Amino acid sequence: MKVGKLNWDDLKEIIDGSRKVRRDDVRIRSGVGxxxxxxxxxxxxxxxxxxxxxxxxxxxxxxxxxxxxxxIASCGVEPIGILVTILAPENTSLDEIxxxxxxxxxxxxxxxxxxxxxxxxxxxxxxxxVISCTVIGKAPKGKAVATSGAKEGDDIIVTKQLCLxxxxxxxxxYKNKIKDILTEEEIEEAQxxxxxxxxxxxxxxxxxxxxxxxxxxxxGGVLGALWEVAExxxxxxxxxxxxxxxxxxxxxxxxxxxxxxxxxxxSGSMLITTKNGNELIEILKKEGIKATIIGKIIxxxxxxxxxxxxxxxxxxxxxxxxxxxxxxx
Length: 329
Prior knowledge:
This protein is an alpha+beta fold. The protein has helices at residues 8-18, 60-73, 94-111, 164-173, 175-178, 184-191, 200-209, 221-233, 248-256, 277-286, 320-328; strands at 26-28, 37-41, 44-53, 79-88, 114-122, 130-140, 155-159, 213-216, 236-240, 270-274, 291-298, 302-306, 309-312. The chain is 35% helix and 26% strand.
């Protein structure tokens, strides 16, 4: 099998085939595009999500915190606790594990998230360190936003810039191979993209504003996230390539490395659908968060408009990061 997430047909078959119990107190459960489950506890509900870090070497602790807390934020609520599992190969030093946990501690402190527990193990089962985290959030009953709530006519918003995570991984893990593409100043700027990977603020703001759906943009990039939102909501979309917010540094890297930036891992950017896009953008702007309307939710298929040519968007396959890794070997 190819490296990367399973395709949605295979994953859906596995999920549907393994779910033998459906409890009444589970309000939102796993499915296409739903990264979180929501469990009711009386007047409140618990939001849970889990994800590993496998595609990066540098900043893996920082990435592990943010990709998981971002999932909780995509429900419009604040993450409150994290459990951390580290599986490391035999050649790992204690200092390396300490460094990862130092990163995790620093990032959780910024987000006011407590490390609740976890597991650390040296094992022959992996050839590089794997960090897997589970994060929980808490909200009043019925508040958590589902990915599947997009409505026809919704504005589609993305926050900040696309490909922040993917760009930062490339410049940190493959610096020697991209030194002829970027200047030292540009490399340093792109390395600092890791400081903008959290979407917790925009998630909470959007949740309080009242939006129909949210999804943090991870593997598969913005087109993968759009497809997942549309599939979960039984809707389509029409978005415009020229409206996609992508930095000049990212554009140059993607062009030189033959990467499609619209299918490139993009933690740090939230996908939001709402009836009042311009109003939400102004609120986010006042909080120092850039946001851009890239299209609309429609009935039917997912459409990308590129220079007035409409192209149907296919289901997400493996992220461009994994394609690049094979080229870099």
